[in-house]
Amino acid sequence: MKTPVRVAVTGAAGQIGYAILFRIANGDLLGKDQPVILSLLDLPQAQKALNGVIMELNDCAFPLLAGVTPSDDPRVAFKDVDIAILVGSRPRGPGMERSDLLAANAEIFKVQGKALNDVAKRDVKVLVVGNPANTNAYIAMKSAPDLPKENFTAMLRLDHNRAVSMLSEKTGTPVKDIEKMAVWGNHSPSMYADYRNATAAGKPMPEAVNDEAWYKDTYLSAVGKRGAAIIEARGLSSAASAANAAIDHVRDWVLGTNGKWVSMGVPSDGSYGVPEDVMFGVPCTCENGKYTRVKGIEMDEFSKGRIQHTLNELLEEQAAVADLLK
Ligand SMILES: NC(=O)C1=CN([C@@H]2O[C@H](COP(=O)(O)OP(=O)(O)OC[C@H]3O[C@@H](n4cnc5c(N)ncnc54)[C@H](O)[C@@H]3O)[C@@H](O)[C@H]2O)C=CC1
Ligand SMILES: O=C([O-])CC(=O)C(=O)O
């Protein structure tokens, strides 16, 4: 039997928490032979509900679940964790933009970044889901100076999965036969879902779609605004698909992608004209527990403009939290 991996999930009593914990405990995150210990963080006022979730986790009698502990203190919840999925924060409601959440949620990620810095494993893998995810991940990274920067990532995978699914529907290609999709930039409507290198069953995606006007005028904004469309339809933000994307992101990071491209928000190394440390969505491949950016993608004028647009938004978000990080 393998040694259990310690996984922290914050906001564990919330709706994404309710969708993700049972799948992690079932082996969807790290494999069907890997025991896990769940360390669950939520606010003091959510502890009663969190205990109810733990009762349900226990009632599933998951063979891989080697322990579950609740806490309302990040320094307790993050102690010695190998993986931290930071979900806990306020979601937006109808009519709100993600930028409206920045003020409400930034402080959370400063506190949690510091706690990770002090008590987590030195190779902890951190995924920030709570919005605005890129800038929250940037805040957590900057608040954890003793941890390697590459430990911190933001979730672009929901956008990636939405982008692939919509191309699958448009072209009639099964999702499994779509490769090399790339979502650049911020997890917000400014993101750039770039299909130029993608393939549909081996055929170049632009050819398979054969409708550039649809791509530029309909598809790009449909991917970018999908979160708002879900809120409009459900009255609540996406939860099961967000949980699924978080599992995809961490699983691929830990277990590898076999050469397949996935989109991840990672601290920039300066490539593609993105200043260092900006938490930016880029296509990556993963192997041996490490991600590598796909390098050398040619940029046409349209792509340069889209990347600059989403970068500008991230730089504005960073400027808005600069005081918090002093
Ligand atoms: N990056 C992405 O693709 C997506 C991100 N999200 C974001 O995920 C976040 C969570 O969404 P939901 O689960 O639907 O919200 P929710 O409101 O159902 O749950 C949030 C949970 O976080 C807890 N929480 C709040 N502050 C906390 C803190 N300081 N420490 C620990 N726990 C804390 C709350 O008590 C609550 O239990 C939101 O920010 C939402 O916008 C949602 C969908 C997709
Ligand atoms: O839109 C929201 O607020 C939730 C989210 O991030 C998404 O579904 O993409």
What keywords describe this structure?
single chain; 326 residues; alpha/beta; Rossmann fold; L-2-Hydroxyisocaproate Dehydrogenase, Chain A, domain 2; 6-stranded parallel sheet; 3-stranded antiparallel sheet; 11 helices; binds 1,4-dihydronicotinamide adenine dinucleotide; binds oxaloacetate ion
CATH C-level class of the largest domain is Alpha Beta
CATH superfamily of the largest domain: Lactate dehydrogenase/glycoside hydrolase, family 4, C-terminal
Annotated CATH topology of the largest domain: L-2-Hydroxyisocaproate Dehydrogenase, Chain A, domain 2
Arithmetic mean pLDDT: 97
- Share of helix, binned: 40-55%
- Number of structurally distinct domains: 2
Please list the strands of the largest sheet in the order they lie side by side: 3-2-1-4-5-6
Helix count equals 11
Distance between the termini: 46 Å
Structural class: alpha/beta
What is the approximate shape?
A: globular
Give Rg in angstroms: 19 Å
Low-confidence stretches: none
SSE order, as H and E? EHEHEHEHEHEHEEEEEHHHHEEEH
Say how many strands there are: 14
> Which distinct ligands sit in these coordinates?
1,4-dihydronicotinamide adenine dinucleotide, oxaloacetate ion
Summarize the main sheet: 6 strands, parallel
What oligomeric state best describes the polypeptide chains here?
A: single chain
Report strand %.
Answer: 15-25%
CATH architecture tag of the largest domain? Alpha-Beta Complex
Organism: Acidocella aromatica
GO biological process, one term: malate metabolic process
Enzyme class: oxidoreductase
Protein name: Malate dehydrogenase
